[in-house]
Amino acid sequence: MTTHAAVETAVETPAETTVTKTYRVIGTRPIRHDGMEKVTGKALFGADMRLPGMLYGAVLRSPHPHARIVSIDTSRALAHPEVRAVITGADFPDITRDEIADLGEGAIGLRYAAQLIMARDKVVFKGQPVAAVAATSRRHALEALALIDVVYEPLPVVEDAVEAMSPDAPLIHDDLYTEVPGGERSDKPSNVALHVQHERGDVARGFAEADVIVEREFRTQMVHQGYIEPQAALAVWEPDGRATVWCSTQGAFTVRKQLADQLQIPIGRITVIPTEIGGGFGGKIQVYLEPLALLLSRKSGRPVKMWMSRSEVFQATGPGAPAYIRLKMGAKRTGEITAAEHYLVYDAGGFPGSPVKSACVVGLSPYRIPNFKIDGFDVVTNKPRVQSYRAPGGTAAAFSVETVVDELAERIGMDPVEFRLKNAARSSDRMTNDLSLERIGFVEVLEAALNHPHYRAPLPEGQGRVGRGVAAGFWANGRGTSSVQLTFNPDGTVNLVEGSTDIGGSRVALAMIVAEELGLKPEDVKPMVVGTDSIGHTDTTGGSRVTYSTGTACWLAARDAIAQLKGRAALLLGVDADDVEFRDGVFYANSGEGRSIGIRDVIARLGETGGAIVARGVSHGLKLAPGFGAHIVDVRVDEETGKVDVLRYTAIQDAGKAIHPTYVEGQMQGGVAQGIGWALTEEYVFKDGVLQNPTLLDYRIPTAMDLPMIDTHIVEVPAADGPYGVRGVGEVPIVPPPAAVANAIYRAVGVRMQRLPMSPERVWRALQQAAAEEA
Amino acid sequence: MPRLRVPSPMRPAVGGRQEVDVEGANVGEVLRHLAATYPQVRDRLLTPEGGLQPHLMIVVDGVEATGLFTPVRPDSEILIVPSIGGGCR
Amino acid sequence: MTSQKRIVDTRINGVSVSFIAEPRETLLEVLREKLGLTGTKEGCGNGNCGACSILLDGQVVNACLVLAVEAEGRDILTVEGLAQPDVHPLQQAFLEHGALQCGICTPGFLMASKALLDENPRPTEEEVRRWLSGNLCRCTGYDKIVRAVLAAAEGVSAQ
Question: Would you call A435 and B62 a contact, using CB atoms and an 8 Å cutoff?
Fold first, then answer.
């Protein structure tokens, strides 16, 4: 089990640490180390950076959803007195390799990534970059865009993914073929980039065994992560070919790699320094501005700062993928699910790479289903190229599964949570792709839901029809590799150097792990997030992996520190190193006279005992530590308007071990809020491939008035790996809400919603239709 | 012998089997052995240059293999699965 | 295109400040790009997110909707001026309650909340939510923000 290699000595591996004991620091709620600078406005986010002589960049974007670029004339822009550089696709190297850029769920072929960053001969979504300028002020840069003359030849627009699958549909990429992982590639180009398949058992036999079968069709919308901070970057190209980029990103190392790949510069010459980041949710892994800013800096010989307007964020970054899903599921009268057929079409936007592969795993894996057939399709359309959005693919897949499960339970006459308990996956069960779930806590989460006061409480009173719904959620959670370094200060405090950009308060949890292991107070460990020159490779912040993976690296680094400090303590105690034991922040000399010395003293006296030490830890080879959640929601439906109000919400989730409960609660509440927006109000509205609502006025994310207090209940079932049994928590909470709300609406007014968002108009129409059918 | 579980689209190429025995001390050797034993598998598994197809990943004993040199033990379970990320890498 | 630049005299965070602005520049642009006060954030540029909330003569406004020249002779309070120099009860409450995750919306919420408590020292939860509905947060779901403001109200009132 656990971490292979890395540690040569027989060091107690993280998962063997007892998980039932009470901890001194773990589970407490210290104030975060970066808190003061954030509440005083001192923290520097991407657009806050400045350098002397800095220019400002702006991007010219395609007005057409699908067009050939006939010609680009930049001469008038170059003649603008305040413009210092202009770039187009011609300034970028040709990408000939067919490699897939490793962005995890957002994996994209390098050639397509190149076009996403700057169009070459055609554009495939409105908003795709066509040129960029750098000028002495942002206003002048924006003015100069109007001086760039681009001639387009518009092409037929393909807006809907299901229509795009038809053999008659206009082809968006003539070099795109349907890949079948494990199977044979198609021989004709297509808008279908991928067909994923998973099969187990015999679905025909499984459905024959079922007493009840439910078959439903669903459509979910394109949504945006909605991070309040638009993308921003500041780039400097030095005359000797070194490059430095400050940017708001979820991963400095992936930015560096993408820059090296796209601009074809040696990766060692690039330094990426992450600024504070104002939200990401998966949308700030793919680079957009960084390569542009860097090339503009090279051409102008000056630093170049760029940031996106909100309208650009909506039109030209990576929203969450829309989906068309069909689900057929059968169960016995006694409650066992016998078979499921899941057909998922995910819309990738202009280039392939929707999270359909994940969706094919996340949808059905929470349940023990002996016979299933899953077909997932990744399809391109003339819309913005999607990116990961918090549990990518999961929310739409769960919308289908959790509402069908609800309906099956009802048809059988079983409580919906009991039905889930009957079929719940257990530890060591396999996901739909055959990977083991390892140790999980789904059963515990469902039992907690069943026993939660909200579940039994009387429905809230008042006007309108009220209903209660439940839904479960699952995310496999990421692992990957992280590097951590510890250095030591003469006052006995410790510096924690790590590379996981902090979107939600992770640095305090990481400091707490080091503090716990070293017997220090959290405020005595100073965490800092550094760039690519200053720490070993660290995978991206995302996939709910930081507390788990970087936390493991912190635990290993602390162990390494103890091992090294032991030797120094031995010197100070006048005994052999083997004779020294470390417990609760104190080094004890076993052999005698009760001699001991505190760790802070040992640290303070490093100079006397041989000089500085540096401790390190690197995590890799961690087992899967999946997360499960169950949500309970009460809604009120206004039958006259179709408006749905969320009256009460409880989110239950297995966190493995809540290192800092406040921030675990925060992740749960934030995911719920996004899920409610996804359920009720958020939607990209397109007309012929043109986004109609690229503003925060018309793309309606929840405000403080739209939500009640969001109650949370943390369950702790230790993961198979990692310190204290900790699991990632960030993504699970966005998975259940649309299904939970839909199930609640059903119980309130008797209609099953199959489209998202469940806007007032849609709910009202569903009510009208139901009334008409009854008449 | 290490056991290898085959994803459903690949099963026709290995005689319909869901699981096959393989040989090799690391992932690269296992894949080459598989491709040699079942020639139809080769194009579904490997690129013309001999690397793993980009939409697949190899999982050894529950952990994603980082490369072709990832060790494989005699009692290892190896999975070939569509690669997934999770909003990160 | 030329425009008449103006000298604007104002007070920012209790200090007299003069700056030069074009009539078309917003107060947000000037604060951030000219005066180095980057604590006030741009989230949308058109008054829909509240990330640029500041106090103008004690009233909460979106700095992106105020022209810089409108600041002439007026009193501006930004997040940088909230701690004077002691940490403001709102700032302390936000820290204690975990009312921030990424922190980008926090300056806007702090300024809007200060304006609320200045006008209504003992708001109800509903009043807090209504007042803050012009400030968008994508990370927290507002729960801990509302709790922090209510807690600060008790602290502030206790003074």
Answer: yes
